[in-house]
Write a structure and sequence with these properties.
The complex is a heterodimer of chains A (546) and B (769). Chain A is of the alpha/beta class. Chain A has 16 helices and 24 strands. Chain B has 769 residues and is α/β, with parallel strands linked by helices. Chain B folds into 4 domains: 2-248, Pectate Lyase C-like, CATH 2.160.20; 249-284, no CATH class; 396-488 and 608-667, FAD/NAD(P)-binding domain (3-Layer(bba) Sandwich), CATH 3.50.50.60; 493-604, FAD/NAD(P)-binding domain (3-Layer(bba) Sandwich). In chain B, a hairpin with a 3-residue loop joins strand 24 and strand 25. At the A-B interface, helix 1, strand 2, strand 5, helix 2 and helix 4 of A face helix 5 and helix 22 of B.
Chain lengths: 546, 769
C-alpha cells in the first residue's frame, strides 16, 4: 500500500516525462551524472509476485527483491525540461524525455506566489509565422536577366549609420573640385546579419567568445563583414583594447551595465567599435527591462557590471528619457559624442503598435545623428523573462518593418535611417529566407540571436523544450556561468558552426537575390514577393497568389 | 572553283535563310569554297560538310553565330570583325576572325579552333567544354576580353594575349571565370577581377610553355600579325587560370580547421588566454557530459549518523535506538543494552513499561509493517549494571527533587564524575514513577532494580529534606549548578460546589503504592480519563471499590491499552461529561445526570507548588517559566513537571538536557543540540519486506535485522557493490569501526550510492567548483 495524496506532484503533472527502460539500462550512472536539473535520480523499487505452479491455481511465493531504478524527480524546483542530455549520454538507448500532453505545469508552477520565469522565446503561436506565408514570387526568366547565385559576385552590404540624401550632402565646388564642408555622418556598410544583443552574463564566457570569434573569423577569413552586438552586459577589457573591436557594436541599455570599463578602455582602443546600439526594449519581453537571474551573476559578471550577486533587473526604460525627442537629443547626442562622432549610433525598441511614430520622429533627425532603427519583434529570444511577458506581449516584426518602411517612403526618406529587423528571424532554421523577405519589405538587414545558440549546441526549441537559460543550469554550457557546465562547450566547434551557417546563409541569400536579378540587397523590392494569405498580402501591400 | 554569294542583290538583302539556302545549293553542286559578302546574316558556316573534302568560307560582314556548330573539315575566315557568338557550339571547325570577336565568342565551343585577331566581348569563352573523345577546343584572342569571360568554363584552352588593352581595363575584364570548373585560360598582363573562389592563378609549367610556344606563331600567322611574336613569346609575362579541382572544392567546403586556426594563430596571439582570460578562470578543456573528480556536477558524501533516526528524534530523551540495533546486528549485545543508560536510568521502568513509546510511533518500519519493538528492548536493559563512572571532577551539583527528571539529571552528571546531591522532601526517591504510577502498569521489581542502580553510583541523597527559600539560596552558592525538579503536586480542581469532597489522585495513588489501602467507598467516580485517571481506576479497584466510573470532558487521552485494561477490570468510561457539582449523591453533571459516588477522585493534572521555594517566580499557566535551554537562573536549570506537565520520558529528556548543558558549561564547551531527523525520502524502505505479523515475543537480534537503521550506516555494502565506477571502498578504522569512502578520481557523481543506500547515508552535494 502506498500513501500518495492527490496534491502531491507526480511525473505525470510535469511537462516532460522520463521514459526509462529497465531492460536496456545497465545502471552506469551516466544519465543521472549528466542531468544538470537533477530531474532524475536513482531510487530503489521492490519487486514481488505470487505465481502458480501446476494445473490448478497453486499459489507459490516468487522471489522478492529490490532493484535500483532511475526515477523522475517531481518538484517545481527540480523537474525535467526535456533537454535530453540523458538520452544523449545513455550508451544503451534506455532513457529519454517525452513531452507530456497531460502536463499540469502551468497550474502549479507558480508555487510560492512567484510568476513563472524562463529563457528561450514565445511558445504560443510559434507555428504560425507570417514569414512562411510569403514567397519570392517574381522570378526573372525571359523578361529580364537573372543572376547565377553560385557563380556571380554580389554586393551584400547594408548601412549602419545616417545616410544623407544627395541634397543634404555638405558639398561645395571649389576650383572645379568637389569638397566636403564638414564631415559626413559615419556610415558603416556591413553584412545584413548582426549577431544580436546577447550579454556577457546571459551567455557563458565561452559562448560569448565563440560568437565573437565567429564574427571576427567571418570578417578576416571570409570577407563577410558581420558585426556582433555586445548586449547590455558590457565588454571584456581585452576585446575593447583589441583590433577586433571594429567588429563589435556596443550596446547601452537601461541598466547601463558595463560602460565604466568601456569608457576606461577608450584611451587604449586601437579601433573604433562598429557602432553603438541604444537599447530601449527587446522583442521577447517588451515593456520590461533586462533580467539576469542571480544564479548567473558570477564574480566576473559582478565585476564587469559593477554590482553584487543578486537578480539583476534593468529598468523598463532609460531613467532620464521621457520622450522620443529627448531620446534623440540626449541619448543619441551623448553616444555620438562618446566616440567623437566617428561611430554610428542606432536605437532598438521592441516592435510595438507605436513603432511607426517612433520611426517618423527619428526620421526628422535634424542633427544627422540617428544611425539606424532596430525593431525587435515577437519571437525574439531572451536569457530570462517572465513567461507572461514572453507569451503574451510583443508585436510581430514583419508588418512592423513594412509599416515603418512605407512611412519613410511616403516622405521620400527611405534609406536615410537604416531599418533593421529582428525577432524570430531563422526560427525555423532558414534565416536567409526570413532575412530576404524582410529586406524586400524594407529592412536593410536583420539581427539574429537564438539561432546562434542553437548552432553552438543549444537544444532548446519553441515548443517548450529546455528554455532554462534563466536557471544557470544550461546543459550545453551556453547560458551558464558554472565552469563545470561551461566546459561542455567546445568554443572552436561552436564558432565553426556559426561560421559555416553564415557562409551558407550568404550563399542562400544569393539564391534568392539572383532570381530576382539583384546583385545588391533588394531593399524594399516588395514586387519580388507574393503572399499566399490574403490578409498578409493586404497588410503588407504585396500581391496575393494562390 | 569558288562560289561567290552576294547577299545584297539589287539593293535587296537576302534573309539568313535565303543566304544559307544558296550555300546548301552550292554544296549540292559540289562546291567547297565560298566567298560570302554577307550583310549581317547569321549562322554562316555550319554545321556543313561535303564528300568532296574541306570546306572554306571567306566571309565579310557576318551576323551572329558565325561558325556555330561548325564541324571539323570547315575553315571560316573573316577579314573584319564578327558579331556575337562566333563559334557557338563549335564542334571542330577552324574559325579565323581577323578583327574583333563579339560577345560570347567561342560560347560552348567543345572542339576546333577559334582565332580572333582583336578583342573578345563580354562572356567570351563561357561554357567551353572538352569532350575527351576529341582534341580540346582552342580559343585564341589577340587583345583583351570583356567582363564575365570564361563563365562556367568546363574544358578547353583559351589564350588571351592582352595586346592593346585600353587604359583602365584588364586583360580578362571584371569577374572572369565565375563558375569555371575545367579547362585553362592563358593570359598575359593584369587579369582583373577573377573569381578566385572557384579558380586559381598559376605560373606556367613546361607543358603550358610548349603549348604556347608552338601555338603562338601559328595563331599570329592565322590572323596575319606575325610581327607581334617577339612581344608575346616572353612567357614570363604569361600566367594561367585553372579551376580548382573537385577535391579542392570539397576540401574547402568541409574545411573545419579554419576557425580553429584563426582562433589559435590570430585571436589568441592578440589576446593570450582569450577575451575573458583575465576575469574568468578557464583552462579551455572541453569535457564530456559525464566526468570524474573536480569536473563532476555533484559529489557524494558519506554522512553517517549526521542525522538522527525517527525513533531518536521522536524520543524526548533522544535515545538512539537505531544504534542499539546496530550493536545487536554486530552481536555486541551487552554494548547494545548498555548504550541506553547514557540517556536514561529507567530503560526498564519507563521505556519498557509506562512510556507510550513515541519512538515506536515514529519508527520508519511503520511504513513497511509494524514498528520495531523498542519497548521490549528497554526491559532488557533493566538488569544491566551502571556504566563505569568518569574520574571525579570535583564539581558539585545539587538536584532538588528525586522524580525522574531530577534523577536523570543526577544520573547523567554523576556518570561524568561530578559530585551530585539530590534533595528530596519525601523519604522515598522516584517521584511520581514511584508514587503515582499504578503497579498494574509498572512491575515494581523493575523499578526497584533501577532505583537501586541509581543509588549504586554514588549520588548523595538527602531524603526527607524540604528545600526552602533559604536552603535554595545556599545551594545556589555552594554548588556549581542546581537543577530544580520539584514536580507538580497541586491538583487542578475547578471551583465546583462540593469540591472539598474530592480526593486528589496523587495522594490516593501514593497511599495505594505504599500499600496503605486507602479507605474509599464502593462506588467511585474518577474525574479525568488520562493515564493518571486510569492509574486511579486501578488503585480504586485494588482498594476495594466495586463500581468505578471514569469521566472526562473529551475523548479519553489515556493509552488504548490502559483503557482496555481498565474496562476489562469492570470500569466504565463516560465522555463527554461535564461536572457541575459534587453532592452527597455523587457527581452531578450539567445535563442533569447524577453519577452516584461514595468517593470522588480527581485526576486532571497538577501544577507545581513553588511558594515555599521561590519568591514570586514567573509562571505560565502555573508552571515555571525558564529561559532558553531550561536555564532558570544564572546557575539553575529547571526540568520536569515543574516547567510543564508531561510524559515521564519528557521529564527524563529534560533532566538529560539540563545535565548536558551543565556538563558543557563546566567544560566551557558548546552544548550540542539533538541532531536533525533524517529525511524520510532518503530512506529506501523498498528493501524491507512486509512481515505477516509482528513477533509475539521480542527477539532482539531479529528486530535488529528489521531495523532500517535510518541515518546510520548498516554496513550492507549496497553502495560499494552498486557503484558503476568502483569508486567506493570500505575503510576499517580502529576498534572495529569503519567508514565508506568514494574516491574522487573514479566517482562521476551519479548518485547511485545515495539512491541505493537504505539508510540515507550517502548524500549528494553540488560540486562547489
Amino acid at each position: 500500500m502506498e500513501t500518495v495524496t492527490v496534491n502531491e506532484l507526480t511525473p505525470n503533472d510535469l511537462p516532460w516525462r522520463i521514459e526509462w527502460d529497465p531492460c536496456l539500462c545497465k545502471l552506469c550512472g551516466s544519465c543521472v551524472a549528466a542531468c544538470t536539473f537533477q530531474a532524475i535520480r536513482v531510487s530503489v523499487e521492490a519487486r514481488s509476485y505470487v505465481y502458480s505452479q501446476g494445473d490448478v491455481p497453486t499459489p507459490l511465493e516468487g522471489e522478492r527483491y529490490a532493484v535500483p531504478v532511475i526515477k523522475q524527480t517531481a518538484t517545481v524546483q527540480q523537474h525535467c525540461v526535456g533537454c535530453g542530455m540523458c538520452e544523449k549520454t545513455c550508451p544503451n538507448r534506455a532513457i529519454r524525455p517525452r513531452r507530456n500532453e497531460d502536463s499540469r505545469w502551468e497550474i502549479f508552477a507558480r508555487e510560492g506566489g512567484s510568476p513563472i520565469k524562463r529563457g528561450g522565446r514565445a511558445n504560443l503561436n510559434a507555428g504560425d509565422r507570417t514569414f512562411d506565408k510569403i514567397v519570392v514570387g517574381r522570378i526573372s526568366q525571359m523578361t529580364d536577366p537573372s543572376l547565377d547565385a553560385e557563380r556571380h559576385t554580389f554586393d551584400i552590404l547594408a548601412p549602419f549609420g545616417r545616410v544623407l540624401p544627395a541634397d543634404k550632402m555638405p558639398l561645395s565646388v571649389k576650383d572645379g573640385k568637389l569638397s566636403l564642408n564638414k564631415p559626413l555622418p559615419p556610415v558603416r556598410w556591413i553584412y545584413p546579419l548582426i549577431f544580436g544583443d546577447m550579454s556577457i552574463g546571459a551567455l557563458s564566457p565561452r559562448a560569448w567568445e565563440a560568437v565573437c570569434l565567429a564574427a571576427a573569423c567571418l570578417n578576416e577569413k571570409y570577407n563577410l563583414p558581420v558585426r556582433m552586438c555586445s548586449g547590455e552586459g558590457g565588454m571584456p577589457m581585452r576585446l575593447l583594447k583589441s583590433k577586433y573591436l571594429k567588429y563589435m557594436i556596443l550596446q547601452i541599455a537601461s541598466g547601463h551595465f558595463g560602460w565604466n570599463r568601456i569608457v576606461k578602455a577608450m584611451p587604449e582602443m586601437q579601433e573604433d567599435p562598429a557602432g553603438i546600439l541604444i537599447k530601449i526594449g527587446q522583442g521577447a519581453k517588451p515593456g520590461d527591462g533586462g533580467l539576469l537571474m542571480a544564479a548567473k551573476v558570477a564574480p566576473h559578471i559582478q565585476a564587469i557590471r559593477g554590482v553584487p550577486k543578486s537578480d539583476l533587473l534593468s529598468p523598463p526604460n532609460h531613467q532620464g528619457l521621457y520622450s522620443i525627442e529627448e531620446s534623440v537629443q540626449k541619448m543619441f547626442l551623448s553616444m555620438n559624442a562618446a566616440f567623437k562622432f566617428r561611430v554610428p549610433v542606432g536605437i532598438k525598441t521592441s516592435a510595438t503598435a507605436s513603432s511607426v511614430s517612433i520611426y517618423n520622429n527619428l526620421l526628422r533627425d535634424p542633427y544627422h545623428i540617428v544611425g539606424g532603427y532596430f525593431i525587435d519583434g515577437l519571437y525574439g529570444g531572451t536569457g530570462a523573462a517572465n513567461e507572461i511577458s514572453l507569451d503574451h506581449t510583443g508585436h510581430p516584426i514583419v508588418s512592423k518593418v513594412r509599416d515603418c518602411y512605407l512611412a519613410a517612403v511616403a516622405q521620400g526618406r527611405q534609406g536615410q535611417i537604416p531599418l533593421w529587423g529582428a525577432g524570430g528571424v531563422g526560427m525555423t532554421g532558414n534565416a536567409a529566407a526570413d532575412a530576404f523577405k524582410l529586406i524586400c519589405l524594407g529592412a536593410n538587414g536583420v539581427s539574429v540571436g537564438k539561432i546562434l545558440l542553437q548552432l553552438m549546441g543549444c537544444i532548446g526549441n519553441d515548443h517548450s523544450r529546455c528554455n532554462s537559460c534563466n536557471t544557470g543550469l544550461c546543459p550545453t554550457g551556453i547560458t551558464t556561468q558554472d565552469i563545470k557546465l561551461v566546459r561542455r562547450l567546445d568554443v572552436d566547434k561552436a564558432a565553426q558552426n556559426i561560421v559555416d551557417y553564415v557562409r551558407a546563409f550568404d550563399q542562400e541569400l544569393r539564391k534568392l537575390m539572383a532570381p530576382i536579378g539583384n546583385s545588391s540587397l533588394p531593399v524594399g523590392r516588395s514586387d519580388a514577393l507574393v503572399a499566399t494569405d490574403k490578409a498578409v498580402a493586404e497588410q503588407l501591400k504585396i500581391p496575393y497568389a494562390c | 572553283m569558288v562560289l561567290k554569294i552576294q547577299s545584297l542583290v539589287d539593293n535587296k538583302r537576302l534573309s539568313t535563310q535565303e543566304l544559307l539556302q544558296a550555300v546548301y545549293q552550292g554544296l549540292e553542286q559540289g562546291e567547297t569554297e565560298f566567298e560570302i559578302a554577307a550583310c549581317g546574316q547569321h549562322d554562316i558556316g555550319g554545321p556543313l560538310w561535303s564528300p568532296k573534302g574541306r570546306l572554306v568560307f571567306k566571309v565579310t560582314n557576318p551576323g551572329q553565330r558565325l561558325g556555330s556548330m561548325c564541324l571539323d573539315g570547315t575553315t571560316i575566315i573573316v577579314e573584319g570583325s564578327t558579331s556575337a557568338d562566333v563559334g557557338w557550339l563549335n564542334a571542330g571547325g577552324e574559325i579565323i576572325v581577323r578583327g574583333d570577336g563579339g560577345d560570347t565568342a567561342g560560347h560552348c565551343a567543345a572542339s576546333g579552333k577559334i582565332y580572333i585577331g582583336g578583342r573578345g566581348g563580354t562572356r567570351t569563352g563561357s561554357l567551353m567544354k572538352h569532350d575527351p573523345a576529341y582534341a580540346p577546343p582552342e580559343l585564341w584572342i589577340l587583345k583583351n576580353v570583356g567582363s564575365f569571360g570564361f563563365e562556367f568554363m568546363g574544358g578547353g584552352l583559351a589564350v588571351v594575349c592582352g595586346i592593346d588593352t585600353p587604359a583602365g581595363l584588364t586583360t580578362l575584364g571584371d569577374r572572369a571565370c565565375a563558375g569555371m570548373v575545367g579547362g585553362t585560360v592563358y593570359f598575359r598582363g593584369e587579369p582583373g577581377g577573377v573569381s578566385l573562389a572557384t579558380v586559381k592563378i598559376e605560373e606556367l609549367d613546361e607543358q603550358d610553355k610548349k603549348f604556347l610556344t608552338a601555338g603562338l606563331p601559328l595563331f599570329l600567322q592565322k590572323i596575319q600579325r606575325e610581327q607581334l611574336l617577339p612581344q608575346l613569346k616572353d612567357l614570363a609575362q604569361w600566367k594561367k587560370i585553372v579551376a580548382k579541382s573537385y577535391a579542392e572544392h570539397a576540401a574547402a567546403k568541409s574545411q573545419s580547421g579554419a576557425l580553429k586556426d584563426f582562433h589559435k594563430n590570430e585571436w589568441l596571439q592578440n589576446m593570450p588566454g582569450g577575451i575573458f582570460g583575465d576575469i574568468y578562470a578557464d583552462d579551455g578543456r572541453v569535457v564530456t557530459l559525464v566526468n570524474h573528480a573536480a569536473d563532476r556536477l555533484r559529489i557524494p558524501e558519506w554522512k553517517n549518523y549526521i542525522y538522527s533516526a525517527p525513533c531518536e528524534a521522536a524520543c524526548p530523551a533522544g535515545i538512539p535506538s537505531q544504534l542499539r540495533f546496530a550493536l545487536l546486528r554486530q552481536n555486541r549485545i551487552a554494548d547494545a543494552y548498555k548504550l541506553v543508560l547514557e540517556y536514561t536510568p529507567f530503560p526498564g521502568a519507563v521505556c519498557g513499561a509506562v512510556c507510550p513509546n513515541p519512538c515506536m510511533e515514529a519508527c520508519s518500519r511503520c511504513r513497511v509493517d509494524t514498528p520495531l519493538n523498542i519497548k521490549a528492548l528497554g526491559t532488557f536493559s533493566a538488569d544491566i549494571p551502571a556504566p563505569p563512572l568518569a574520574a571525579e571532577t570535583g564539581r558539585k551539583i545539587a538536584v532538588v527533587g528525586a522524580g525522574v527528571g531530577g534523577l536523570t539529571a543526577a544520573w547523567v552528571l554523576r556518570l561524568r564524575g561530578h559530585a551530585v546531591t539530590v534533595y528530596e522532601k519525601d523519604e522515598q526517591i522516584g517521584g511520581k514513577l514511584f508514587n503515582a504510577v499504578s503497579r498494574e502498569r509498572l512491575d515494581f521489581t523493575v523499578l526497584q532494580k533501577e532505583l537501586e542502580r541509581l543509588r549504586s553510583i554514588g549520588i548523595k541523597f538527602k531524603t526527607g529534606t524540604s528545600v526552602d527559600k533559604k536552603l535554595y539560596q545556599e545551594l545556589k552558592k555552594d554548588y556549581d549548578f542546581v537543577v530544580l525538579a520539584i514536580g507538580a503536586y497541586q491538583p487542578k480542581t475547578p471551583s465546583w460546589p462540593g469540591k472539598e469532597k474530592i480526593l486528589p489522585s496523587l495522594d490516593f495513588l501514593k497511599k495505594v503504592n505504599n500499600g496503605e489501602k486507602p479507605k474509599i467507598g464502593k462506588r467511585v467516580v474518577v474525574i479525568g480519563c488520562g493515564n493518571s485517571g486510569m492509574d486511579v481506576v486501578f488503585g480504586a479497584m485494588q482498594s476495594g471499590a466495586q463500581e468505578v466510573t471514569a469521566i472526562d470532558v473529551q475523548q479519553p487521552s489515556a493509552f488504548a491499552v490502559e483503557i482496555e485494561r481498565a474496562e476489562a477490570l469492570g470500569a466504565k468510561l463516560i465522555w463527554p461529561a461535564f461536572t457541575e457539582a459534587i453532592t452527597d449523591e455523587g457527581v452531578k453533571l450539567n445535563d442533569g445526570r447524577v453519577l452516584p459516588a461514595d468517593t470522588v477522585i480527581i485526576a486532571i493534572g497538577e501544577v507545581p507548588i513553588v511558594e515555599g521555594l521561590l519568591d514570586k517566580p514567573e509562571l505560565t499557566r502555573g508552571y515555571l517559566r525558564t529561559g532558553e535551554g531550561r536555564l532558570f537562573e544564572s546557575n539553575v536549570y529547571a526540568v520536569g513537571d515543574l516547567t510543564r506537565l508531561g510524559l515521564l520520558v519528557e521529564a527524563i529528556g529534560g533532566g538529560r538536557e539540563a545535565a548536558l548543558r551543565i556538563q558543557a558549561a563546566l567544560l566551557g564547551a558548546e552544548y550540542v543540540p539533538p541532531k536533525m531527523r533524517v529525511a524520510q525520502d532518503k530512506l529506501a524502505l523498498e528493501y524491507f519486506s512486509k512481515e505477516e505479523s509482528p513477533a509475539a515475543v521480542c527477539e532482539p537480534i531479529k528486530e535488529a535485522l528489521r531495523c532500517v537503521s535510518c541515518g546510520s550506516c548498516r554496513d550492507c555494502q549496497m553502495c560499494l557493490k552498486s557503484c558503476p565506477e568502483n569508486a567506493i571502498t570500505r575503510v576499517v578504522l580502529e576498534a572495529g569501526d569503519y567508514k565508506y569512502v568514494s574516491e574522487p578520481k573514479k566517482c562521476i557523481g551519479c548518485g547511485i550510492c545515495a539512491g541505493v543506500c537504505p539508510c540515507g547515508i550517502w548524500t549528494l552535494k553540488d560540486n562547489p567548483l
